[in-house]
Description:
The chain has helices at residues 3-7, 14-43, 52-63, 71-77, 83-95, 117-138, and strands at residues 69-70, 99-103, 111-115. The chain is mainly α. β2 and β3 (111-115) form a beta hairpin.
Amino acid sequence: MSAKNKSHNPPRSTAARSASRQKTTRTRFLLALRELDDAWVAAFPETGFSDVYFSRLFTELWLRADTAVTKTDAYELVTGLSMQTAMKYVRRAIDEGYLEELSNPADGRSRLLRMSPLLRERFAQVIDRANKAFTAVLGER
């Protein structure tokens, strides 16, 4: 056997290349996800606001733009928890200035909630920072 043949590595199989690409993509995705977590904690440094339930509540409100929702609807946005616990999350977001309470013109007995300017600003920071990380991962295929 010649020296040339001894040092030559056989070509990697298609499956091995695919597995390697998948591992790289998954690693990059996790790094982007970690960037999202870091962005969230930087924007919401108060203890407890890194909880996934606040993330879900704030995300759902962001997707509704400036549309106010009833408190009952807001409680339902905190999915996976009892109504009583969801109420505590919403109350905390109000107390910290992330949600604004408005009177409900259609029903004087109920209150509406929407994102405060503070929440809009901080959530935009999270989105912008995380978007860069995810674009780097998802943009290269």
